[in-house]
Amino acid sequence: PADTPDAAQARARTAPAPVTDVAKLCVCDLLVAQCDVNCCCDPDCSADDFSLFTTCSVPVVTGDSQLCSQKAAVYSLDVEANPPERIFELTDQVNPSIFCIHATNYKQALYLKSPEIPTPENFDRLLDKFGGATFSAEPDSWNLDTDAQNPPDANETYRYEYGVPVQTEDAFLRLPSPVVSSWCSDANPAAFLVNQATKCIRSVSVEKCDSIQALSMLFYINSSILAVPKSSQMVNITVQSIVVQSLNGMRTLLNSSDVLRLPMILDGLCINAVLGVNYHITHTDTGEIIEAAAAFVLGAISKEALSVEQSFEISFTQENTQPVPLSGNPGYVVGLPVRAGFRPRGYPFPAGFLSNKHGQLTILQSTSTQDCLAAQGARAPVLFGYNMISGCKLRITAAMKCQPLAQTLLDVLKGQSFPEYVASFGNSQAQDVLDWVPITQLHISEQMISNTLQSSCQIPVSLGIEVKWTKYGSLVNPQARIVNVTATITTTTLKQLPSGRERIIPVTSSVVFTDISSPAEPSYKAWPTINIKLPFDFFYPFV
């Protein structure tokens, strides 16, 4: 029977029961039974873990974005609370599009398809498809008939988006990587804006090295990249540089990279074999690839070798921008520079101008002459985890004025633009306000005992930087995080010298790293402490 108008309207106003509980979804929960850093929906995280978070990596969790109405789990941090707390809200989210799904009534689409059970009839076919070391669920050919499946009138977004495979004229840009084992698989596509670095093992035979495609430079540059997906505009991959590696590991950069060096057999060796490829892709802010370059490492393979290790890397840079080097991901790596910057007026976060072109915290660099005036402008980066000390000597005469001398020494110690903030993590971004630690600057004055304060001035003689850091995150893989930085300027009182007299004053800079991590405490008290003395032969015959 036909529905009455009132019944139809009532059914339309009533939203269907949600199929997925978004409060239990968590796409950033990667570690099993462990708290993931900045994952506010991780059920393994406690209130103590949330108090250490700097941001929520996934602030909103929803189900199917095509539904007309659905629940949304919203996560945020209350940084003003002491300690900071996580805030969870379950809200109703309405899809503004007029083309949306009111109810998911196709039940077969809500479940995974049952796998095909091997039988004597289909065993050979399944073995051919899944019996290898690697297999792909993608279609057999990536060169799809785009005209048939995507007519010209289709509303396509002709640009690359994050994570989309970089397409070439025949398939996609290959970035070989280990999948199931350590052996190389060429079925791994390079994803747009995803910087990757892989290493894998390739089976080789010196007698057939000139016929193994993966050892040839042409295998990695012979296919042009599509400037945007499903277009006819091509971007050729140019050879940026070629480095030749000998059998003992010595590398030599070739002056010319115009000539292709193909693998060949010479004196029982396979020479010009590809050992490493480094792709560098330049793109526009609209997602169009405009340039592609590849840097190769070629080497020799001895006839005794049955396999060779290859390394592959790809990086993306937007045009007219300079890439910002990272010092860890996420925590700092020992030996990499401490990233720093300062907040220009009008900016809500540390951005724009940095302490130098690399955005690093620096100190005075010692020179062979030990002359402070000659060392002005020479800076050395502060490397995480390395305690450092440097200095110079200043020759003071009676003709020197106090104020210019003090300002010159301050510039020698702090540099032209001393930063105001230090990145707490090695990969902190400028827009993440809570990931930047302000530098506390202190001034200490020490007086020369043998001199009076009459006709004297204060000059800075040392800069001491103390960096306090802690182990952050999982105990299995803790990450180094900077929590406090203090820069202390020490000044001394200098009396006016008599005419013709000179004095030499040492000026020093130092950096000290202090680990303030609390020792891990067990979550149980199952083992009591027993204060007894064991016999001397209790563990005999073991030591």
From TrEMBL:
Single GO cellular component term: MKS complex
InterPro entries in UniProt: TCTN1-3 (IPR040354), TCTN1-3_dom (IPR011677), TCTN1-3_N (IPR057724)
Stated name of the protein: TECT1 protein
Membrane-crossing segments per the record: none
Organism, as annotated: Oriolus oriolus (Eurasian golden oriole)
GO biological process: cilium assembly; protein localization to ciliary transition zone
Pfam families found in the cross-reference section: DUF1619_N (PF25752), TCTN_DUF1619 (PF07773)
Family: Belongs to the tectonic family.
Record bears the keyword Signal: yes
Subunit structure: Part of the tectonic-like complex (also named B9 complex).
Key words, A-Z: Cilium biogenesis/degradation, Glycoprotein, Signal
UniProt domain Tectonic-1-3: residue ranges: 159-318, 328-515
Tectonic-1-3 N-terminal domain location: 14-122
